[in-house]
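The records we work with from here on pair a chain with its fold. These numbers are not coordinates but entries in a learned vocabulary of local backbone shapes. To see the layout at work, look at the sequence and tokens printed below.
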Amino acid sequence: DGNTAQNTPRIQNHTYANAGTYNVTLKTTDQNGCVDSTSTSIQIVATGLNQMNAVEGLTLYPNPAVGFVQINYSSNEMAKVMVMDIHGKLVLESRLMSGEKVNLEGLSAGVYSLQIEFGNQSTTRKIILNK
């Protein structure tokens, strides 16, 4: 989001205002003036309470899931569903209507975040995938 920090601590942190994908660059300069940098792309998943409750009538089941999860909501719009692993890596993306299932067969057992978006609404929910 264009923020620059010039701090001296070894641990840096930043709070992003919105969910999304960001390109992050860390640039360091040592006491001899040598400069080094590294860049990566990160996926920020919103988990705030306002964001969590943004989609009315949302149900997601079964949870824990085995093979699939069904998503129901009170809109007739197509939804974009993004599944992220515990590291925030996007592992699955699909578009579906309310009442349809997201196929999770190709994923390993574990905890995942589902970000569901349609129109100007968005929410993120955690699911447990068993095998």
About this structure: Confidence is low (pLDDT under 50) at residues 48-53. Helices lie at 49-52. The radius of gyration is 18 Å.
